[in-house]
Amino acid sequence: MAEEMPDFSNVNAGSSSTASKIYEVKSGDSLSRIAQQEYGNANDWPRIFEANKDILKDPNKIFPGQKLKIPPK
Amino acid sequence: MTRHTRLLALAALAIGLTACQKQEAPPPPPPAAEAPKVEAQAPAPAPAVISIDSITLGNALNADKRVQQPTESFAKTDTIYAVVETKGAGQATLKAKWTYHKADQTAVVNESTQTIDATAPAVSEFHISKPDGWPAGDYQVEIFLGEASAGSKKFTVK
Q1: Which of B6, B27, B94, B113 is the most buried (most CB within 10 A)?
Q2: Partner B contacted by A9 (CB < 8 A)
Q3: Which of B141, B91, B66 is nearest to B111 (CA)?
């Protein structure tokens, strides 16, 4: 008879790197939301905008599927 | 041949020459929409030439993202870090698959991925924590580079 396995549904997970990360924009994202998720501070959004000026002209216009460089923390 | 007939013949010859000249005219340029749009094409991503150098576990990180003290034994309240050092440059997707093992059963604890764009050897970390504490037992983290397994580490929680 199989033993009952523990519940891991409340596990928190994260990741980071000394290299730039590549983030694929999802529906509902904004640069400040991505900055909050990646840096823990929504006010760090200009770092992401600066790193992606080759593809972003307006920080308020990002689109699902775009791949943004996230500079290391 | 009458004068009238000669005039008709000359007129026919002139029409024929004009028609020939029209056929030899150069073809019109292609519509602008068919022009190549080189500027609109995104540059091809650099081929991934990243490889895994090492996988290390610990319960705290230094500022350089390496573990302070490598260990494979953790307390129930620890945050568990898996640090992956890579060599080479390029884009690559790293995945950490954390599992719990009891007898012959396996439960997936968590799966996380991150895509990195490395220009030099890099240190990447994955971490997990559990607010109500880890069940004691045997665990494993397996690291994937793209779709391929690049190595694993077993650890215990006491």
Answers
A1: B94
A2: no
A3: B141
Q: Give the residue on A whose Cα is nearest the Cα of B96.
A: A15
Q: Which tokens go with B79?
A: 């945050």
B49/A59 Cα distance (integer angstroms):
32
- B124-148 residue pLDDT tens: 999 999 999 999 999 999 999 999 9
CATH 3.20.20.70 fits B51-157, yes or no: no
Q: Give B100-114 pLDDT, tens digit per residue.
A: 999 999 999 999 999
The structural domains of chain B, with segments of one domain joined by +, span 3-40, 51-157
End-to-end CA gap in chain A: 48
Q: For residue A21, which residues of chain B lie inside 8 Å, CB to CB?
A: 114-117
Give the structural domain span for A39.
27-70
Judge contact between B142 and B151, C-beta under 8 A. Answer: yes
